[in-house]
Design a protein that fits this description.
heterodimer; A: mainly beta; B: mainly beta; six-stranded mixed beta sheet; 0% helix
Amino acid sequence: DVKVTQSSRYLVKRTGEKVFLECVQDMDHENMFWYRQDPGLGLRLIYFSYDVKMKEKGDIPEGYSVSREKKERFSLILESASTNQTSMYLCASSTPGTVNEQFFGPGTRLTVL
Amino acid sequence: AQTVTQSQPEMSVQEAETVTLSCTYDTSESDYYLFWYKQPPSRQMILVIRQEAYKQQNATENRFSVNFQKAAKSFSLKISDSQLGDAAMYFCAYRSLSSGDKLTFGTGTRLAVRP
């Protein structure tokens, strides 16, 4: 079975802190994605990566950065957390190909105080 | 940019009955893919069903089927013989050939199943 894991299920941080959210997949997928999920807004793409060291901005990249040093790991970084970044963050991975499904991690619920 | 609209924030169905979740999308492209994902409470999002736009036949996966109306840009999900385990958030998603592997999601429909 494909497995996508995220480093924390719940995280509480202070405004201004640097936050790292880690995602690891074990299926050798080239593609990895970071979304945020908010009630009434669905899932919105923050960043994605097609390969190691490659990244592209999604629809809402402001305030975020990413890192992909190894194929299986994709990190989302909040350089200076703000309260409006309180949200559920979902990581996903897939093999290239538009018909292929994305496999999701369990999510990290981040609260910024 | 493509948009996906799910006009039903919440739905409810009696166990063993049938329910239909609606999804419409806006695109100028002719080739694309559509997906329904399910997110159970506190569990990971999983794929329910997918449809290729060039296929006229509606996709079916066991109790789940879609009604794909390309001209109307409509992609509804029908769940037959609803079970308690079907209770979840359901997201409709669109992927165009030109956007690579990125998905555009709708806002979701929360489905409750009454015993």
